[in-house]
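DM between two lab members

TW: hey, do you still have the Acyl-CoA thioesterase II entry open?
JB: yeah, one sec
JB: this one, 298 aa:
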Amino acid sequence: MSVDPQKEPVKALLQMLDLADGGGARTLEDIFVGQTITSMRNRVYGGQVLAQAAMAAIRTVPEDRAIHSMHAYFLRPGDVNFPITFGVERVRDGRSFSARRIHAYQDGKTILSMIASFQATSGGLDHQDEMPLNVPDPETLPTLRDLLGSIDLPEARATAFERPFDMRYVTEPLFLPWRGTNEAYNAVWIKALAPLTDDPNIHRAALAYASDYTMLEPVLRRHGKSWVEPGLNVASLDHAMWWHRDARADEWILYVQASPSASSARGLGVGRMFTQDGLLIATTAQEGMMRLPEFHSE
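TW: and the structure you got?
JB:
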Protein backbone atom coordinates (compact mmCIF):
# COMPACT_ATOMS: atom_id res chain seq x y z
CA MET A 1 0.00 0.00 0.00
CA SER A 2 1.41 3.41 -0.96
CA VAL A 3 1.91 6.01 1.77
CA ASP A 4 0.53 9.51 1.32
CA PRO A 5 3.71 11.66 1.33
CA GLN A 6 1.80 14.58 2.85
CA LYS A 7 1.04 12.50 5.95
CA GLU A 8 4.69 11.65 6.64
CA PRO A 9 5.64 15.10 8.05
CA VAL A 10 2.59 14.96 10.36
CA LYS A 11 3.57 11.47 11.49
CA ALA A 12 7.04 12.85 12.26
CA LEU A 13 5.49 15.78 14.18
CA LEU A 14 3.46 13.41 16.38
CA GLN A 15 6.54 11.26 17.00
CA MET A 16 8.51 14.37 18.05
CA LEU A 17 5.76 15.33 20.50
CA ASP A 18 5.71 11.83 22.02
CA LEU A 19 8.57 12.35 24.46
CA ALA A 20 10.35 9.52 26.24
CA ASP A 21 10.22 9.75 30.05
CA GLY A 22 13.97 9.63 30.63
CA GLY A 23 13.83 6.21 32.26
CA GLY A 24 12.21 7.62 35.39
CA ALA A 25 15.22 9.83 36.19
CA ARG A 26 14.39 12.77 38.47
CA THR A 27 16.30 15.13 40.76
CA LEU A 28 14.73 18.56 41.15
CA GLU A 29 13.44 18.08 37.60
CA ASP A 30 11.25 15.62 35.74
CA ILE A 31 13.31 14.37 32.79
CA PHE A 32 12.03 13.78 29.24
CA VAL A 33 13.82 13.12 25.97
CA GLY A 34 12.77 14.32 22.52
CA GLN A 35 14.00 13.44 19.05
CA THR A 36 14.30 15.28 15.74
CA ILE A 37 12.80 12.79 13.30
CA THR A 38 14.07 14.28 10.05
CA SER A 39 15.55 17.52 8.80
CA MET A 40 17.42 18.82 5.78
CA ARG A 41 19.03 21.43 8.03
CA ASN A 42 21.79 21.16 10.65
CA ARG A 43 19.97 23.26 13.23
CA VAL A 44 16.85 22.19 15.09
CA TYR A 45 13.83 24.27 14.10
CA GLY A 46 12.94 26.56 17.01
CA GLY A 47 9.24 25.68 16.92
CA GLN A 48 10.14 22.03 17.54
CA VAL A 49 11.92 22.87 20.80
CA LEU A 50 9.04 25.13 21.88
CA ALA A 51 6.46 22.40 21.22
CA GLN A 52 8.50 19.65 22.88
CA ALA A 53 9.21 21.83 25.93
CA ALA A 54 5.50 22.58 26.22
CA MET A 55 4.69 18.85 26.01
CA ALA A 56 7.29 18.06 28.68
CA ALA A 57 5.66 20.57 31.03
CA ILE A 58 2.16 19.30 30.17
CA ARG A 59 3.22 15.83 31.31
CA THR A 60 3.77 17.14 34.86
CA VAL A 61 0.47 18.94 35.56
CA PRO A 62 -3.03 17.64 36.36
CA GLU A 63 -5.15 16.89 33.30
CA ASP A 64 -7.68 19.59 34.17
CA ARG A 65 -5.04 22.35 33.82
CA ALA A 66 -4.31 23.55 30.29
CA ILE A 67 -1.26 25.50 29.20
CA HIS A 68 -2.26 29.14 28.72
CA SER A 69 1.10 30.88 28.32
CA MET A 70 4.80 30.30 27.77
CA HIS A 71 7.80 32.61 27.70
CA ALA A 72 11.00 31.16 26.25
CA TYR A 73 14.54 32.19 25.37
CA PHE A 74 16.55 30.49 22.64
CA LEU A 75 20.06 30.32 24.12
CA ARG A 76 21.96 28.09 21.69
CA PRO A 77 21.16 26.42 18.35
CA GLY A 78 20.11 22.78 18.61
CA ASP A 79 21.85 20.01 16.65
CA VAL A 80 19.47 17.75 14.68
CA ASN A 81 21.84 14.78 15.05
CA PHE A 82 21.35 14.41 18.81
CA PRO A 83 18.35 14.01 21.12
CA ILE A 84 17.20 16.88 23.34
CA THR A 85 16.79 16.37 27.08
CA PHE A 86 14.06 18.39 28.80
CA GLY A 87 14.18 19.09 32.54
CA VAL A 88 10.93 20.31 34.12
CA GLU A 89 10.92 21.97 37.53
CA ARG A 90 7.55 21.99 39.31
CA VAL A 91 7.78 25.58 40.48
CA ARG A 92 4.28 25.93 41.93
CA ASP A 93 0.87 24.29 42.06
CA GLY A 94 -1.81 26.64 43.37
CA ARG A 95 -5.57 26.29 43.65
CA SER A 96 -6.16 26.96 39.93
CA PHE A 97 -2.73 27.80 38.42
CA SER A 98 0.46 25.77 38.00
CA ALA A 99 3.88 27.08 36.93
CA ARG A 100 6.70 25.07 35.37
CA ARG A 101 10.27 25.95 34.44
CA ILE A 102 11.61 23.96 31.51
CA HIS A 103 15.20 23.76 30.29
CA ALA A 104 16.18 21.99 27.07
CA TYR A 105 19.70 20.51 27.06
CA GLN A 106 22.12 19.14 24.49
CA ASP A 107 25.68 18.06 25.29
CA GLY A 108 25.23 19.31 28.86
CA LYS A 109 24.39 22.85 27.71
CA THR A 110 21.07 24.68 27.86
CA ILE A 111 19.66 25.48 24.42
CA LEU A 112 16.27 26.82 25.60
CA SER A 113 14.86 28.15 28.86
CA MET A 114 11.09 28.45 29.31
CA ILE A 115 8.50 29.29 31.96
CA ALA A 116 5.01 27.94 31.27
CA SER A 117 1.77 28.57 33.14
CA PHE A 118 -1.30 26.32 33.36
CA GLN A 119 -4.83 27.01 34.55
CA ALA A 120 -7.94 25.04 35.41
CA THR A 121 -10.97 26.19 33.39
CA SER A 122 -12.61 29.25 34.94
CA GLY A 123 -15.37 31.71 34.10
CA GLY A 124 -14.68 35.42 33.70
CA LEU A 125 -14.71 38.47 31.43
CA ASP A 126 -14.58 37.67 27.72
CA HIS A 127 -13.70 39.80 24.66
CA GLN A 128 -11.38 39.58 21.66
CA ASP A 129 -9.96 41.47 18.69
CA GLU A 130 -11.87 41.06 15.45
CA MET A 131 -10.50 38.92 12.64
CA PRO A 132 -9.20 40.91 9.63
CA LEU A 133 -11.80 41.46 6.92
CA ASN A 134 -11.76 40.39 3.27
CA VAL A 135 -9.16 37.62 3.67
CA PRO A 136 -9.10 35.15 0.74
CA ASP A 137 -10.32 31.62 1.39
CA PRO A 138 -7.28 29.36 2.00
CA GLU A 139 -8.36 26.83 -0.61
CA THR A 140 -8.03 29.53 -3.31
CA LEU A 141 -4.35 30.18 -2.49
CA PRO A 142 -1.28 28.22 -3.69
CA THR A 143 0.48 25.76 -1.37
CA LEU A 144 4.18 25.89 -0.51
CA ARG A 145 4.63 22.86 -2.76
CA ASP A 146 3.05 24.81 -5.61
CA LEU A 147 5.39 27.75 -4.95
CA LEU A 148 8.65 25.99 -4.14
CA GLY A 149 8.36 22.31 -5.04
CA SER A 150 10.12 22.64 -8.40
CA ILE A 151 13.09 24.66 -7.08
CA ASP A 152 16.16 22.41 -6.85
CA LEU A 153 17.64 23.90 -3.68
CA PRO A 154 17.83 22.09 -0.30
CA GLU A 155 16.20 24.95 1.65
CA ALA A 156 13.37 25.29 -0.85
CA ARG A 157 12.71 21.54 -0.85
CA ALA A 158 12.77 21.43 2.96
CA THR A 159 10.22 24.23 3.13
CA ALA A 160 8.01 22.65 0.46
CA PHE A 161 8.10 18.99 1.55
CA GLU A 162 9.32 18.72 5.15
CA ARG A 163 6.90 20.98 7.01
CA PRO A 164 3.94 19.19 8.66
CA PHE A 165 1.70 22.21 8.02
CA ASP A 166 -0.10 23.31 4.89
CA MET A 167 0.70 27.03 4.60
CA ARG A 168 -1.15 29.37 2.23
CA TYR A 169 0.20 32.93 2.06
CA VAL A 170 -2.31 35.80 1.97
CA THR A 171 0.53 38.30 1.67
CA GLU A 172 3.31 37.86 -0.89
CA PRO A 173 5.65 34.99 0.18
CA LEU A 174 9.21 35.97 1.11
CA PHE A 175 11.02 32.96 -0.36
CA LEU A 176 11.99 34.80 -3.55
CA PRO A 177 13.47 38.29 -4.09
CA TRP A 178 10.98 40.83 -2.71
CA ARG A 179 8.67 42.62 -5.12
CA GLY A 180 5.74 43.70 -2.94
CA THR A 181 4.91 46.74 -0.82
CA ASN A 182 6.99 47.56 2.26
CA GLU A 183 4.52 47.07 5.10
CA ALA A 184 5.14 45.55 8.52
CA TYR A 185 2.36 42.99 8.09
CA ASN A 186 2.21 39.29 7.23
CA ALA A 187 -0.71 36.86 6.92
CA VAL A 188 -0.80 33.13 6.25
CA TRP A 189 -3.36 30.33 6.60
CA ILE A 190 -2.02 27.23 8.37
CA LYS A 191 -3.29 23.76 9.22
CA ALA A 192 -1.71 20.34 9.75
CA LEU A 193 -1.36 18.37 6.52
CA ALA A 194 -3.22 15.39 8.03
CA PRO A 195 -5.63 14.85 10.93
CA LEU A 196 -4.13 14.91 14.43
CA THR A 197 -5.39 13.11 17.52
CA ASP A 198 -8.30 14.46 19.56
CA ASP A 199 -6.01 15.33 22.50
CA PRO A 200 -6.28 19.14 22.92
CA ASN A 201 -2.72 19.25 24.27
CA ILE A 202 -1.42 17.93 20.93
CA HIS A 203 -3.24 20.77 19.16
CA ARG A 204 -1.85 23.38 21.57
CA ALA A 205 1.69 22.05 21.09
CA ALA A 206 1.23 21.81 17.31
CA LEU A 207 0.18 25.46 17.17
CA ALA A 208 3.28 26.36 19.21
CA TYR A 209 5.33 24.42 16.66
CA ALA A 210 3.82 26.35 13.74
CA SER A 211 3.92 29.72 15.50
CA ASP A 212 7.67 30.10 14.90
CA TYR A 213 7.56 29.81 11.10
CA THR A 214 6.74 33.39 10.12
CA MET A 215 7.10 35.57 13.22
CA LEU A 216 9.90 37.74 11.83
CA GLU A 217 8.58 38.06 8.28
CA PRO A 218 6.78 41.38 8.93
CA VAL A 219 10.16 42.86 9.90
CA LEU A 220 11.70 41.74 6.61
CA ARG A 221 8.66 42.86 4.63
CA ARG A 222 8.74 46.35 6.19
CA HIS A 223 12.27 46.86 4.84
CA GLY A 224 11.84 45.21 1.44
CA LYS A 225 13.89 42.13 2.36
CA SER A 226 13.29 38.41 1.82
CA TRP A 227 14.73 35.13 3.10
CA VAL A 228 17.07 35.01 0.07
CA GLU A 229 18.65 38.41 0.84
CA PRO A 230 22.44 38.00 0.37
CA GLY A 231 24.25 37.94 3.71
CA LEU A 232 21.06 37.94 5.81
CA ASN A 233 21.59 36.34 9.24
CA VAL A 234 18.47 35.77 11.34
CA ALA A 235 18.14 34.00 14.70
CA SER A 236 15.19 33.90 17.08
CA LEU A 237 16.07 35.28 20.52
CA ASP A 238 12.87 34.66 22.46
CA HIS A 239 9.28 33.58 21.97
CA ALA A 240 6.07 34.08 23.94
CA MET A 241 2.66 32.55 23.34
CA TRP A 242 -0.72 32.93 25.01
CA TRP A 243 -3.46 30.38 24.30
CA HIS A 244 -6.84 32.10 24.73
CA ARG A 245 -9.29 29.50 23.46
CA ASP A 246 -9.10 25.93 22.20
CA ALA A 247 -8.99 25.08 18.48
CA ARG A 248 -7.84 22.25 16.27
CA ALA A 249 -4.49 22.64 14.54
CA ASP A 250 -5.72 20.36 11.72
CA GLU A 251 -8.35 22.92 10.71
CA TRP A 252 -7.58 26.22 8.99
CA ILE A 253 -6.10 28.92 11.23
CA LEU A 254 -5.42 32.47 10.00
CA TYR A 255 -2.07 33.61 11.43
CA VAL A 256 -1.48 37.36 11.08
CA GLN A 257 1.70 39.12 12.27
CA ALA A 258 2.86 42.73 12.53
CA SER A 259 6.11 44.37 13.58
CA PRO A 260 5.88 47.42 15.85
CA SER A 261 9.65 48.00 15.95
CA ALA A 262 13.10 47.07 14.67
CA SER A 263 16.32 48.54 16.07
CA SER A 264 19.89 47.64 17.03
CA ALA A 265 19.93 44.52 14.78
CA ARG A 266 16.77 43.22 16.49
CA GLY A 267 13.24 42.99 15.11
CA LEU A 268 9.99 42.36 16.99
CA GLY A 269 7.04 40.42 15.61
CA VAL A 270 3.60 40.11 17.23
CA GLY A 271 1.05 37.58 15.93
CA ARG A 272 -2.58 36.56 16.34
CA MET A 273 -4.26 33.28 15.39
CA PHE A 274 -7.94 33.09 14.35
CA THR A 275 -10.17 30.17 13.44
CA GLN A 276 -11.95 30.36 10.08
CA ASP A 277 -15.11 31.59 11.83
CA GLY A 278 -13.26 34.45 13.55
CA LEU A 279 -12.41 33.10 17.02
CA LEU A 280 -9.14 34.51 18.42
CA ILE A 281 -7.33 31.48 19.81
CA ALA A 282 -3.77 32.66 20.48
CA THR A 283 -1.37 35.61 20.54
CA THR A 284 2.38 35.34 19.97
CA ALA A 285 5.43 37.59 20.23
CA GLN A 286 9.03 37.08 19.20
CA GLU A 287 12.20 39.15 18.99
CA GLY A 288 14.95 38.08 16.63
CA MET A 289 18.48 39.06 15.77
CA MET A 290 18.53 40.33 12.18
CA ARG A 291 21.92 41.21 10.71
CA LEU A 292 22.59 42.50 7.20
CA PRO A 293 25.98 43.10 5.54
CA GLU A 294 25.40 46.83 5.02
CA PHE A 295 25.20 47.34 8.80
CA HIS A 296 28.27 45.32 9.78
CA SER A 297 30.94 47.34 11.52
CA GLU A 298 34.46 47.42 10.10
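TW: got it. The chain has one domain: 7-120+137-295. Residues 34 and 84 are 5 Å apart (CA to CA).
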